[in-house]
């Protein structure tokens, strides 16, 4: 429907109508409202005197000592109440004399009446013999009338009139009694029993349901608006296998909102990702590399963009049993000075070092944060080659990506390695506290936990502002993508107390 804000208009109508109904009902016409309700209108059959001995003689008047013949009788009970929001005083009645209201009974005459119930005993003063309460006939005796005085009623107060009536004309059912009169600034109206759903409430409910149905129909037929950060095209993401699950999930979230976007992944490690970007990325805004740490000096054309503080952890085989190591112990293990787990409180089991291959961003972060420099040179050994073998002494092996690291540590007895924290937890691998501090985002932010790194996105030169790569990075660091970063235990760089910490030379 174009740019016309149909949903907003419907929402405003849905708000305005109930408010208007409330103001109309309780402010305009409902502030002063005198209601009446016929609670009983019953024909009397059979021997009245034998059923209710002594009642009718008290209610019906005597004429020269003789009562009129009683036939075709009915008993009516009418409740008169203040059903408005404010008090009704004697001066609120429109009638100029002492009579305030007229209770009329078409086709019947009144042969007896009584006030049967007062919500407050103080009302009796307005309904005694000195008041304007009286019985008369109108229209040639065809309509019986009970004149009611001007009774002051507080909110919710009421009184009831019981009348004995005799038919004056007609046959069949009696016309309903009617209360007439006027209230200044209000009205006199027939009310209903408060059991069940009030008509106004039912009407408002139906109206609101219809508004909701119309909104659903409008939403269904309208095309989903394209979010402002959306861009279309294809974007290839390569690089860090440690950060791959985070980027994949963020890309899936982006594709749900931006159906014109398509993502391709090639997470084979930081070094391979940077190499591919350097070789293929020139004049290609559809290629980004994700790196666990700064790129170094070998890629001068690549431009960095900090993403998040990423959490890493040491992992061990379940049989090792060691759940905490100091930084010194970790250095001694990887420099070959500790060769059996019993030397650090573990079982009599040779240590098997599992490393990422040189050039891995995760390995660089591990060496920079925990070892303080490069590891000793060791010949390359595939972890697949030593699985299932019995080692009599310390051993080592290398893996290509994070998943291979987790698999090797989980399968080789005595193995120790390192991994992105949330992926290690998801793989159900035992993690190791460092210096007695467990891996945690807050501990990494306040630097009490030492094994953390910064994730970067690299492009070949600056990105066009309308490119999918630029839009996706904006989504990742400034919009909904930040929730994905946090869900994986990372801290978005923009939310750090010291954001300069994410700069490559920090």
From TrEMBL:
<feature type="transmembrane region" description="Helical">
    <location>
        <begin position="201"/>
        <end position="221"/>
    </location>
</feature>
<dbReference type="InterPro" id="IPR050811">
    <property type="entry name" value="Phosphate_ABC_transporter"/>
</dbReference>
<keyword id="KW-1133">Transmembrane helix</keyword>
<dbReference type="InterPro" id="IPR024370">
    <property type="entry name" value="PBP_domain"/>
</dbReference>
<keyword id="KW-0812">Transmembrane</keyword>
<keyword id="KW-0732">Signal</keyword>
<feature type="transmembrane region" description="Helical">
    <location>
        <begin position="6"/>
        <end position="27"/>
    </location>
</feature>
<dbReference type="Pfam" id="PF12849">
    <property type="entry name" value="PBP_like_2"/>
</dbReference>
<keyword id="KW-0472">Membrane</keyword>
<feature type="domain" description="PBP">
    <location>
        <begin position="229"/>
        <end position="478"/>
    </location>
</feature>
<protein>
    <submittedName>
        <fullName>Substrate-binding domain-containing protein</fullName>
    </submittedName>
</protein>
